[in-house]
Amino acid sequence: MTVPESVVLHVAIVTGPIDVSALLSRAQAPGVGAVSLFLGTVRDLNDGRPVSGMEYEAYESMAESELRAIAHETCGRIAGLRLVVEHRVGALDIGEASVAIVAAHAHRAQAMDGARDVIEALKRRVPIWKREHYVSGDREWIDPTTVTA
Amino acid sequence: MSIPVLLFASYADAFGARRLDVPLDAPCQVADLVRVIRSMPGGDRLPAAPLVAVNRTWVREGAAVQVGDEVALIPPVAGG
User: Fold this and answer.
1) Does a structural domain hold residue B16?
2) Which residue segment(s) compose the domain that B33 sits in?
3) Residues A133, A136, A137, CA angle at the centre, nearest 5°?
4) ipTM score here?
């Protein structure tokens, strides 16, 4: 049996809401038997402080090229993977998705590994920053090197 | 001559600008550039060895900066 080639279907930095259904549709194919979806969403509490919203900023040209590189590297490790990745920038409300990764494969283990590999590399390498807006009115850039979020 | 450097997020706040014109001649090394930037007003809020990208690629402090390169000082990333 021939394993289909891995393919990076879509990688984008977007400014509007992420359309998860559209991304899931993009990943579908007759040979797909498992679709893993990772969503990062804005939560209302961080380190005990009530959060009212989040603001994302990116070095957009590099963020998109790094995301694309990560997607291709992941596809290089997992044969037959189909990847769709979007990261949103701008102001987000509680509960909204900041990042969506769809990894589709014939089998579940590869689909789940694919989604996990992309989000872990994204968090290490992609030049995107977030500023939390607190209910108190304060705002702070998140520095993952100093917190354990 | 000066070298334009892009700033983002907390670093843009530190300097009150999204771009710095660093008074230095290219070619030079990233480490030279960082040294001069850290001596500028607001530069005390930078770590000793901040992350740097040249032409949208991560580089080390020994990397060269040429005339016309796109240099960016990158705060700790926090995507996702």
Assistant:
1) yes
2) 3-74
3) 50
4) 0.94
Q: Which of B5, B6, B77 would best serve as a mutation to test chain A binding (most A beta carbons within 10 A)?
A: B77
Confidence of residue A148 (pLDDT cuts 50, 70, 90): low
Does residue A85 sit at the B interface (CB-CB below 8 Å)? no
Quote the pLDDT of residue A126: 98
DSSP H/E element including B34: helix B30-38
**Amino acid (1-letter code) at residue B16:** G
Boundaries of every domain in chain A: 7-141
Query: Using CA atoms, how far apart are residues A53 and A98, in angstroms rounded to an integer?
Result: 11
As a whole number, mean pLDDT of residues A10-28 equals 98
Question: What global pTM score does this model have?
Answer: 0.94
Across the interface, do B56 and A62 touch by the CB < 8 Å criterion? yes
Its CATH architecture, for the domain A7-141, is Alpha-Beta Complex (3.90)
* CA–CA separation, A64 and A130 (whole Å): 16
